Amino acid sequence: MTSGKPDRISGSNAEVLAYIPQRPPFVFIDKLLEASENKIVASFEVKPDNLLVSDGRLTEGGIIEAMAQTIAAGAGFKAIASETEVKIGYIAAIRNLQIFQMPEIGASLTVSVMLVNQVLDITIAETEVLIGTEKVASCEMRIFIKND
Predict the structure, then answer these.
(1) Which DSSP string do the residues of 30-70 spell out, in sequence order?
(2) Separation CA 28–CA 8 (nearest Å)
(3) For the stretch 106-133, what's the b/e string if a residue is b when 16 or more beta carbons lie within 10 angstroms of its beta carbon?
(4) What residues of the chain score a pLDDT lower than 70?
């Protein structure tokens, strides 16, 4: 990084915290792996002390939060890279949510997001969570971006 502006993704947990508004213990991504114009990829390891782990598995809420935080991390990275303000987003809608399995403690998740449209202050994204090549969950997520 030069002058506080990222020129590449280092993939560190500390770096992720610069891009998202959430703070421990409510952080559900460990590394930002990719943040291009239309694609964002992050990873997350399910740990026993995660707030949204129950009976040794990540809950539905934890999976959804990992999806939303991946979108936030990509937006935060791009804002800092372009030296603009990092804006706050809120989940406005979730459509076609499918959860195929509840990841166990120790599972390494890859969260992929394709940004498909921007309508006024709403970002529309297709999200997918994988363990290796096995699909964990998917949905369309609409995020409202708060403009001051």
Answers:
(1) SEEEEE-SSEEEEEEE--TT-TTEETTEE-HHHHHHHHHHH
(2) 21
(3) ebebbbbbebeeeeeeebbbbbbbeeee
(4) 1-14
Handedness of CA 59, 88, 21, 16 (dihedral sign): positive
Task: Pull the structure tokens for residue 124.
Answer: 């529309």
Structure tokens at 39: 């694609």
3-state SS, one letter per residue, for 10-21: CCCHHHHHHHCC
Q: Give the whole-angstrom CA distance, residue 23 versus residue 39.
A: 23
Closest CA to 46 of 30, 31, 61: 30
Report pLDDT digits (tens) over 20-53: 999 999 999 999 999 999 999 999 999 999 999 9
Contact 139, 67 (CB under 8 A): yes
Please give the model's pTM, rounded to 2 decimal places. Answer: 0.91
In this structure, CATH architecture of domain 13-145:
Roll (3.10)
What residue segments make up the domains of the chain, in order of their start?
13-145
